[in-house]
């Protein structure tokens, strides 16, 4: 199945170059946009699988646009493609609903792989950034907040969630549990619905906050 993509960047040469590279690798580049406001408006119409989003977009930032797109279009995932590798920018993007974060120094091969994986539901980060995000979630988990008891998950959903928290991909989870990739996806989607979350990054955060990233005794 062809992955549809939309590219949002305020630099036309960069934007057009990324669009050309992805089209040459078989992606359906449905649209481009130069700012966050246009990104949301166009995304509502073209409904891409993945939005490649820069952060510095003028009045409507990439963070604001990512939050709006992921909030309104649950079938669309946002992969940030930014020149900044600053930890605060990464965390803000993730909190806004981005499924991953890639720096612009990534190669075309890395970009192609990241878009495919994002479309498939995997969180994708430039090397070193994933550990930082999970580490921040673990730090936040040290101060648990009061609230309603979590929804009841099945034993298998809990097994899958525990491995998501450890940073494993869907394929790695399938291999570890000796089940099919599709079964893993079904458990992930069921868990997302039960917990009212949007993507695997939020799922990993939930699991860490509930101690599921730690090995059982």
Question: Keywords, please?
Answer:
217 residues; alpha/beta; Arc Repressor Mutant, subunit A; 2 domains; 6-stranded parallel sheet; 10 helices; 12% strand; phosphoprotein; transcription regulation; Sig_transdc_resp-reg_C-effctor; Tscrpt_reg_LuxR_C
Describe, in plain words, how this protein is organized in 3D.
There is one protein chain. This protein has helices at residues 12-24, 36-46, 62-72, 87-95, 108-119, 129-141, 155-165, 170-177, 181-195, 200-209, and strands at residues 4-8, 28-33, 50-53, 77-82, 100-103, 124-125. The protein is globular. By secondary structure, the protein is an alpha/beta fold. A six-stranded parallel sheet has the order 2-1-3-4-5-6, sandwiched between helices. The mean pLDDT is 83. It has ten helices and six strands. The protein has two domains: 4-127, Rossmann fold; 139-209, Arc Repressor Mutant, subunit A (Orthogonal Bundle), CATH 1.10.10.10.
